[in-house]
Amino acid sequence: MAGKNGKMREKSLTMDTLNPQVKAVEYAVRGPIVTKAGDIERGLQQGQKHPFTEVIKANIGDSHAMGQKPITFLRQVVALCSFPELLDSSIFPDDAKQRARRILQGCGGQSLGSYSASQGVDCIRQDIAVYIEQRDKGVPADWDNIYLTTGASDGIVSILKMLVSGQGRSRSGVMIPIPQYPLYSAAISEMEAVQINYYLDEDNCWALDINELHRAYQAAKEHCHPRVICIINPGNPTGQVQSKKCIEEVLHFAYEENLFVMSDEVYQDNVYSPDCQFHSFKKVLYEMGPEYFNTVELASFHSTSKGYSGECGFRGGYMEVLNLDLEVKAQLVKLLSVRLCPPVSGQAAMDVIVNPPLPHEPSYLQFHKEKSAVLGALAEKAQMTEQILNTVPGIKCNPVQGAMYAFPRIFIPPRAVEEAMSLGISPDMMYCLRLLEETGICLVPGSGFGQREGTYHFRMTILPTTEKLKVLLEKLRDFHIKFLKEYASLEEPKR
Amino acid sequence: MAGKNGKMREKSLTMDTLNPQVKAVEYAVRGPIVTKAGDIERGLQQGQKHPFTEVIKANIGDSHAMGQKPITFLRQVVALCSFPELLDSSIFPDDAKQRARRILQGCGGQSLGSYSASQGVDCIRQDIAVYIEQRDKGVPADWDNIYLTTGASDGIVSILKMLVSGQGRSRSGVMIPIPQYPLYSAAISEMEAVQINYYLDEDNCWALDINELHRAYQAAKEHCHPRVICIINPGNPTGQVQSKKCIEEVLHFAYEENLFVMSDEVYQDNVYSPDCQFHSFKKVLYEMGPEYFNTVELASFHSTSKGYSGECGFRGGYMEVLNLDLEVKAQLVKLLSVRLCPPVSGQAAMDVIVNPPLPHEPSYLQFHKEKSAVLGALAEKAQMTEQILNTVPGIKCNPVQGAMYAFPRIFIPPRAVEEAMSLGISPDMMYCLRLLEETGICLVPGSGFGQREGTYHFRMTILPTTEKLKVLLEKLRDFHIKFLKEYASLEEPKR
């Protein structure tokens, strides 16, 4: 294998020559724990022995993988769009056919197989604008501000990419909540922007504290140029739902400090607590008056992946972007055009979510029943998760007001912390690895989302079926008690 | 609208504060000509008068938008996967049902709505590996090296992203053909890599000349670190098909100079000239012996968007990556995992393309007929395009051996060149704008793909129906003759 001058040909791409920004990226939701869970799962299938018979994956918000059934109407529309010969079949209801015809008329050659415009199919963007107006009780929405995306992640990365510039102290800073969904930190690493952490208040149900925003902003100003504030509402991984007052404060802050606002609202349909209500950042901005509504730059993100449909695999989503400078808007469209368009079947799925059957239409009853069943079960599981976790000594869980996750705080004994440190892993990573190995439960350590130093958490989804979730929580409780005991007894000889 | 200190709130994101790398991106396939074509189209619909009654878009390889019908079998499988209740219906053939069942069994919860693994659905990756082995007459393919992607563009950008590092003279250089598909230059701009142009030989049917590769490499070494060579075969926009000898030379060169090879083979099914044959870079590498096959890092890209299916909207694709360092591979999977997964319906479409009906299966005849009809018509149109264009004085068109485009050289009179310069636009842009305004034909100027200085071209697709393409070519001929006359007569007074 001798190359030029008789040398061996070496790899051109090694860890030493890899893009350092790629190296810096971390994404715990699919990190080492999940890889290990996959290995164990394959082992079980091949007859390997473990102290459990199945792996329960509560690491990722993947509803269908956990057994949730698709919404029939949505899939009917997508199937009709995919194979329009079915439009002549009597097995599909008329309202599904009407939706499919409308979508296909918006596609080049009336085919899902054509590229759409870079911003998405026109009529789908129009449907989204109508949906937003209804959601926000009449606040005007212009479909020119709507962009279909490949899931919400794609939109978030595109907007961040626009905003990153400068070097050294003028490098763009991006304010993100801690704990956060690690797409944000990963994108910030990849773009070499500056991550500015603002900590959510765990003692106050993970509420956003405006004083903490000011603190984080002032501290960051010393070493970068804060340009964006990201909010996740309802919260991921923290499950809180923001109050209207809190949103007003954030928007006022963004107005004063000239920040671009990115509001990740993919869980807008996932609110369970009767005391909470989803308020869109846009509606609150509108109600603050024209000096806010006509000036603050706001991008809001939604998705087909969450809510009651849980259609992650379709990679559908949209963003609405307000008050974008017109020349900048042309640049955004140009940037999106390089990737041509978001998947058109995902756009179709998004259309059904914003344009579901109406009460007088044939599919309404079934649709309504399916939607209520999903959201009802989630609400029940949200409550059950909080309740059972809070019976465990050394675990403290805030109410799961919305989204799909609990992010409980776990007490890890000092000896366990020491042991993890000596292994070079974070204590909650060690905890989650042990949990996986002993019970088959796959969770994500809190360190993958960020947490105050010296505190430990994990994120678990509430997506397993009620029955399976109960088993999971009980196994978790038993594991935790055993874990505490083990490390407590280990400490005894030291006394 | 007074903000802090009574100042007006300014935009936080303006052309001055926009990411300069975004500003630098250019993507002509959806550039200003296409925007203008859209405006004219809307105008026509609203009753505006133009010297034509329809816009013919020959700017983008979007088969279905130009009237090509989907492959029935592919759409049947996707519809079955989307709405599995149809598996009980007698209107679908058994082989389509079998494919759909297999795909669904590979999906979490047997649903297209689940996230797949970051590399894609396992059984689809296995099918792709089998397809590649058959295509390459037994050269081994390991499904561990296969990654599903969101169209080929997504894979290309991911691999490039891994390879970009260093500053100043050690900044990564990326060798690309000129003319090129502008995804490459756009991605290079966005990542601030160094673009290294190697010119294809227009006088020799756009062949790749190994001496030109050496020239470009040696010149670039002075100011950057060349790390990658990109090849597009069959060529976009140039339509040539590379000879086996030429591929061997490129691979030998990459071996010697320790370059990572990216071969864009999305047009592998689009070869029309009876004298040409598609040779995959992988197969040629294999035949060069183990010292090549076991060392050269090669990423090859394919897509659902081209070939005979033309399913652009599904955003399906895959890449096969050979000889990747194992640690680097884990980094690539990590990077992909941040975006979770490619659209699963696009993965399903990709599966059908690599796993079409077999001769003994019920859908074989119809599938074969539809596939042959598409490829036969394209071959006919490729020949017709070359022939008619070469009858026009001042236009010279190489054979369209493959892909979906002609890239003819056009003579632009010096007075027209001067006029364009005075307008601050490239002469071929002026030419294409005039063509659009006078005839409704939408092409992309050669300057959007790169061309030798002082030469002018345009790219046109051969995708309109045979009838419409003939009309297009005749209108184009008349326009060109008129254009030449107009600027020739303008020059007379100068003599």
Automatic annotation (TrEMBL), chains A, B:
Keywords: Aminotransferase, Pyridoxal phosphate, Transferase
Catalytic activity: L-alanine + 2-oxoglutarate = pyruvate + L-glutamate
GO CC terms: cytoplasm
EC number: 2.6.1.2
Pathway recorded for this protein: Amino-acid degradation; L-alanine degradation via transaminase pathway; pyruvate from L-alanine: step 1/1
Needed cofactors: pyridoxal 5'-phosphate
Entry coiled-coil feature ranges: none
GO biological process, one term: L-alanine catabolic process
An MF annotation (GO) of this entry: L-alanine:2-oxoglutarate aminotransferase activity
SUPFAM superfamilies listed in its UniProt record: PLP-dependent transferases (SSF53383)
Aminotransferase class I/classII large domain span: 95-476
UniProt subunit comment: Homodimer.
Family of this protein: Belongs to the class-I pyridoxal-phosphate-dependent aminotransferase family. Alanine aminotransferase subfamily.
Name of the featured protein: alanine transaminase
Organism field: Oncorhynchus mykiss (Rainbow trout)
Organismal lineage: Eukaryota, Metazoa, Chordata, Craniata, Vertebrata
